[in-house]
DNA sequence: GAGCCGTGGCT
DNA sequence: TAGCCAAGGCT
């Protein structure tokens, strides 16, 4: 069975030539492709985990302006790093990035060059280590991400296990230009061999592709969306609003600042009553509502506002809109704040 | 190994 | 419009 993935040399090199040729003609200009600074490539790879290039770009620029090098991240507080990440999602990435920066700085401050040492960094798995090693240091390591897995599956007309994908990627790896080749494979996957309606006529690999646009059963992952209700309470005191730090026992948005919040599979009225009880309030005004999805849950969120005097129970701070960026928060908070500010 | 963690552009 | 799904890693 193993032999099924040992390619004749000529077809492997043809595959590589086509991939690299396409890349040469079509590669996008991206800020992390300006040079081979491992720090810049590392940041890009962490941000790009489960996140599209288009979304990452503004965050990447902002992050590099605020934290231009490894040392600036290591010397910053975790909160500053996570604040800069607010809105990007998967906030653990930011915390682990900060931990990794400190880890590197205690080990001399030089970004590790060895694959195995890169792999030891928090938040860096096999994919990310391979990406950094190959792109920044031209080390001969493959990458397998969602794009590569989909491209391989279609190209060979078969759904491969994770393990086989890595073997495949390894056996197809060129001797040189490994970083370009890895990026090329992913970019072809993202832009040509995309999940739906692949652009086969534009694909450099279509000639030997086993499916050529024909659907491959089982390629899509099953999802079971679920709807829930959410209510956010905006306590108001002198142009400021009360934000709580969600503790680490929370399921979602842990260690982030948020309006007092209740959610579940119950009605808005019940959630609102719970919130009012918590703060000893008799009533609150409806400020508006919005939709927000976290993972496979669609939240129908409404915001209620009430003025408050004195100190609310629990741990929190009064925050003015213009200081929100000092507190790591989800985009839920942004959406809620937008409802509280009269538009002009 | 499966479940879990955010978000919003795209179709 | 609304669902789909992304340059994964950790537990």
What layout of secondary structure does this protein have?
Layout: H1 9-26, H2 38-47, H3 53-66, H4 70-74, H5 78-85, H6 92-106, H7 115-119, H8 126-137, H9 146-156, H10 162-171, H11 178-191, E1 226-237, E2 240-245, E3 257-258, E4 261-264, H12 268-278, E5 285-294, E6 297-307, E7 316-320, H13 331-340
Parallel strand pairs: 1-6
Antiparallel strand pairs: 1-2, 1-4, 2-3, 2-7, 5-6
Helix pairs in contact: 1-11, 2-3, 2-8, 5-6, 8-11, 9-11
The chain binds a DNA duplex (11 and 11 nucleotides) through helix 2, helix 3, helix 6, helix 8 and helix 9.
Helix coverage percent: 40-55%
Mean model confidence by pLDDT: 93
For the secondary structure, the number of strands is: 7
Individual helix count: 13
The poorly predicted ranges are none
What is the rounded distance between the termini?
67 Å
Task: Give a written overview of the molecule.
The protein is of the alpha+beta class. 42% of the residues lie in helices and 15% in strands. It is built from 13 helices and seven strands. It has helices at residues 9-26, 38-47, 53-66, 70-74, 78-85, 92-106, 115-119, 126-137, 146-156, 162-171, 178-191, 268-278, 331-340, and strands at residues 226-237, 240-245, 257-258, 261-264, 285-294, 297-307, 316-320. Strands 1, 2, 3, 4, 5, 6 and 7 form a seven-stranded mixed sheet that branches. A hairpin with a 2-residue loop joins strand 5 (285-294) and strand 6. The N and C termini lie far apart (67 Å). The model has no long low-confidence stretch (mean pLDDT 93).
């Amino acid at each position: 069975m193993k032999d099924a993935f040992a390619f004749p040399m000529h077809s492997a090199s043809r595959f590589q030539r086509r991939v690299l040729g396409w890349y040469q003609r079509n590669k996008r200009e991206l800020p992390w492709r300006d040079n081979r600074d491992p720090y810049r490539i590392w940041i890009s790879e962490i941000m790009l985990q489960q996140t599209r290039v288009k979304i990452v770009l503004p965050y990447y620029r902002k992050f590099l302006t605020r934290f231009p090098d490894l040392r600036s991240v290591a010397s910053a507080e975790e909160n500053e790093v996570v604040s800069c990440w607010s809105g990007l999602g998967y906030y653990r990435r930011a915390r682990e990035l900060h931990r990794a920066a400190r880890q590197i700085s205690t080990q001399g401050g030089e970004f590790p060059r060895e694959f195995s040492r890169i792999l030891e960094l928090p938040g860096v798995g096999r994919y990310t280590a391979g990406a950094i090693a190959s792109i920044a240091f031209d080390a001969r390591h493959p990458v397998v991400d969602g794009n590569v897995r989909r491209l391989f599956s279609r190209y060979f007309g078969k759904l491969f296990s994770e393990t086989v994908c890595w073997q495949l990627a390894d056996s197809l790896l060129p001797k040189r230009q490994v970083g370009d080749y890895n990026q090329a494979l992913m970019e072809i996957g993202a832009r040509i061999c995309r999940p739906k309606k692949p652009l086969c006529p534009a694909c450099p690999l279509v000639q030997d592709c086993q499916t050529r646009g024909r659907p491959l059963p089982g390629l899509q992952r099953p999802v079971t969306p679920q709807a829930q209700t959410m209510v956010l309470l905006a306590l108001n005191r002198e142009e400021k609003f009360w934000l709580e730090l969600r503790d680490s026992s929370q399921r979602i948005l842990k260690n982030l600042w948020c309006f007092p919040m209740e959610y579940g599979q119950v009605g808005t009225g019940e959630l609102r009553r719970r919130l009012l009880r918590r703060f000893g309030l008799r009533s609150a005004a409806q400020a508006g509502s919005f939709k927000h999805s976290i993972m496979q849950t669609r939240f129908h969120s409404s915001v209620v506002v009430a003025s408050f005097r004195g100190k609310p129970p629990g741990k929190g701070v009064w925050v003015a809109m213009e200081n929100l960026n000092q507190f790591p928060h989800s985009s839920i908070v942004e959406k809620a704040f937008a409802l509280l500010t009269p538009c002009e």
